[in-house]
Amino acid sequence: MDLIDYVASLPPIKITRLYENPFTCLAVFRSLAPLAKHYVLSLLFVEDVPQSLVASWALPSAYSKHSAAIDVLTRLQVLFLPSKSVEPAYCLSKSFCEHLRHSACSGTASQLNVVPEGVTTAAPAKGFVDDYAATQWETLLLYAVGGGPCPDPAPHLQSSISLNLEELLLAAGLVSLTDGSGASASRPSSSSQQQPRHSVTQLGFQFLLADTYSQLWQLLREYIARAERQSSTELASALGFLLQLGFQGERPLCCSDLEPQQRDIAAHMAQLGVLYTFQVGGEVWLKPTRLAVLMASGVGSSPAAASDGFVVVESNARVYAYTSSPIRQAILRLFVRCDVLLPNLFVGTITRESATAALESGVGAEQIIGYLRQHAHARVANRIPIVPGVVADQIRLWQRDLQRLSHRAAVHYKNFEGEELYRKVVAYVVELGALLARDDMKKELVAAAEAHPKIRDRIKALKETLGY
User: Fold this and answer.
1) Where does residue 249 fall: left (phi above 0), alpha (psi -120 to 50 degrees), or beta otherwise?
2) Which of 73, 111, 147, 186 is most buried, judging by how many CB atoms fall within 10 Å of its CB?
3) Which CATH number fits domain 410-466: 3.90.1640.10, 3.30.70.2610, 2.40.50.840, 3.60.140.10?
4) Which residue has the higher pLDDT, 361 or 287?
5) Which pLDDT score, from 0 to 100, does residue 232 have?
6) Are 429 and 460 in contact, with CB atoms under 8 Å apart?
């Protein structure tokens, strides 16, 4: 999930409203693939360009990439092919084009706020702010896996609508309740006291494995949708404000200059680590963190280098993880039994019980194996296979054991009055695609429960026709 996927999924009328904000336009442009960016810049300062001319820009060998670039620009409502043209010609969205031209010629500084010199001096250092962002985000991930309380709200900001992170994670499908109490999950609670009552889902495990940019947008997509439902916050306004934070750079925002809905969003973003709050002369100021910059950058994190790996898996299913990160340890605990925990070393074993617990919660065997490969220590990263085959095969076998049996509501039909009635009923059930099992010797069959009303009526009609 990223900004491009999110915007492309919106209705055209909402996309049009989004492009009224210059920061949204610039963030969408940043997020485009290189070829799509090239096409936008080629069309930025010209009028309609014939479709045939645009098609000639790509060599035959690269036509698939050309088609993909045109397709994404069309889905984003950035590129149009007006139907009234005598000759089909491409043109850019008017508002998108105007904002991008202004940014290209004048930059974005003129559209940002002016910060008093005293505030700039009093603002915390970038390193301190980035450490705060990392702590808040890691706390959120730990909360998602059930390893701790949720992040505390910002000390200097009060939101009229509290941010219930458990609700947000549930709505995004990243966690599921473990106590079976669906109603309790919808009750807002004090975030400082909010303890995890959930387990991570298969989608949640994929979320934990994704880069921070993708994680941010997966949560923001659900956050914006909930903001629209709960407080009638307009999508274009909310998204434009969030993306503006990424273009602020080192420039703080004054809280009193924000609209009430923007203050609510700012308070929630501070809790997630996107903003850092501080006070100067009794005034609350907001300083964007590296998460805010990442949010509007359009660039996900690159895959971890071998030197960043920390996991060694041995053929006896022992796992050695050289890390002091609580979130890394929490992720490993999802499928590894922890035997020894030292300040910088996690030692555990992949057992049937630990792996099955993860598999039953929806985590796939290939996801577990993929995580161990992706984070392999530099000393084993070049080993083939990285994860010993006996360990990988065993995890796959445990998953197959869980998939051998499945349960489904069904109805058992027997005691048919005659062979012809039985054959006609079986043929009808097969036609419905509801047959689960049959025994022609005993004249019995089992069908899916949802098809029972139709089967019952057909049996009744056949009995009348056959004279039973």
Assistant:
1) left
2) 73
3) 3.30.70.2610
4) 287
5) 64
6) no
By C-alpha distance, which of 48, 69, 66 is closest to 57?
A: 66
* Max CA distance (Å), the chain: 97
pTM of the model: 0.72
Q: What sign for the dihedral angle of Cα 429, 433, 439, 441?
A: positive
Confidence at 193, pLDDT banded by 50, 70, 90: very low
Contact status, residue 33 vs residue 62, Cβ threshold 8 Å: no
**Least reliable range by pLDDT among 199-203, 217-221, 455-459:** 199-203
The fold of 3-111 is Arc Repressor Mutant, subunit A (1.10.10)
Find residue 133's DSSP bridge partners.
Answer: none
Domain 3-111 shares a fold with domain 410-466: no
Which segments of 76-193 does DSSP mark as H helices, in order?
94-106, 117-122, 126-144, 165-171
> What does the CA dihedral 462, 463, 467, 468 come to, rounded to 10 degrees?
150
For the sheet with 283-288, list strands across it: 253-254, 283-288, 275-280
Q: Which of 62-76, 173-187, 393-407 has the highest mean pLDDT?
A: 62-76
What is the rounded (10 degree) CA torsion for 10, 15, 21, 24?
Answer: 50
Please, which residues bridge with residue 167 across strands? none
Neighbouring-strand partners of residue 318:
349
Instruction: For residue 89, count CB atoms less than 10 angstroms from its CB and return exposed for 0-12, middle for 13-18, buried for 19 or more.
Output: middle
The two tokens of residue 191 are 């975030």
Helix axes 290-297, 22-31, angle to 10 degrees: 70
| CB contact at 8 A, 87 and 80 | no
Domain ranges for the chain, please list them.
Answer: 3-111, 117-297, 306-403, 410-466
Q: Give the DSSP letter of residue 57.
A: T
Task: Count CB-CB contacts under 10 A for residue 21.
Answer: 19
